[in-house]
Amino acid sequence: MSDSYQGRERRIAVLISGSGSNLQALIDAQNTPALPNARIVAVVSNRKAAYGLTRALQANPPIPTAYLGLQPYLKADPSRTRQDYDREIARIVINEKPDLVVLAGWMHIMSEAFLDIVSGEKQLEGAEKVTRPIPVINLHPALPGAFDGAHAIERVYEAFQKGEITHSGAMVHRVIKEVDRGAPVMVKEVEMIAGEPIEAFEERLHKTEWELIVQATAKVLDEIAALEGQHS
Ligand SMILES: Nc1nc2c(c(=O)[nH]1)N[C@@H](CN(C=O)c1ccc(C(=O)N[C@@H](CCC(=O)O)C(=O)O)cc1)CN2
Ligand SMILES: NCC(=O)N[C@@H]1O[C@H](COP(=O)([O-])[O-])[C@@H](O)[C@H]1O
Question: What region holds the Formyl transferase N-terminal domain (predicted)?
C-alpha cells in the first residue's frame, strides 16, 4: 500500500442484495492498515430483507442505509422503467458523494442510465453534481471470462464435477455495461477438491472473497488518490 492514499478520508458506497458478509469485511477493515482513511458512507440494497442492511445499522458508528426494490418501484407507477429505477439508485448513491462504488453481492444488472450518471457523462437533475467519474467495481465469484452472470458458484461447481475445470476463484472488476466483462482489478484463485461438497468449496471461496474485496477496494482508492495527486 503506497502512502499516496493519505489525505482526505475516502468515501465508499456499497450496494448489496443479500447477507452482506463482504460488506462486513469492508466495515471491519475501515480505517485499519488494510483499508486506511476510508469510510463507508452508504449501504444501498435492492432487497428489503438483505441482512447487510442490519450489518450497516449495527456498525459502529452506524452506516446510513437505503432500500429501493425494483418491482415495488415499478408497481408504484406503471409509467416507470428499469432505467428510471437505475437513475434513482444513481441519485441515492451520488448524493452521498462517494469516491468509489462497490457492488458487493448486488444482484441487479446496471443499465447505462446508472453508469452514465456515476461517470459524470450525464447529470441528474436535483442530485449532487458528479465532477469526476466515480469508479464502480464488482465482486464476482468466478475467474475472468468464465461463468459471467448470476448463480456462478453453482455453475462453477457443476463444471468442476464434469471435469471441465480444475480450479476457480473470484475477481473484483471494473463495472461496464457488459456484465462481468469489465477490466479485472484483482483476481484470486481458489482450489477445487474432488469429491468435496459445494458447501465446502463455497466456504473457501467466501473466505477468499472477504480478503479480495478489501484489497481490491484499497487498490482502487489508492489509484484514485494517485490520480488526484497528478491533477492537483
Ligand atoms: N452493467 C453491469 N451491471 C452489473 C454488473 C456488471 O458487470 N455490469 N455486475 C453485476 C453482478 N453480477 C455478477 O457479478 C450479476 C448480478 C445479477 C445478475 C442478474 O442476472 N440479475 C437479474 C436479476 C437476478 C435476481 O434478481 O436474482 C437482473 O438484473 O435482471 C447478473 C450478474 C451487478 N450488475
Ligand atoms: N454475480 C454477483 C455475485 O454472484 N456476487 C456474489 O454474491 C455473494 C455476496 O455475498 P454477501 O452478500 O455475503 O457479501 C458473493 O459471493 C459475491 O461474489
Answer: 11-217
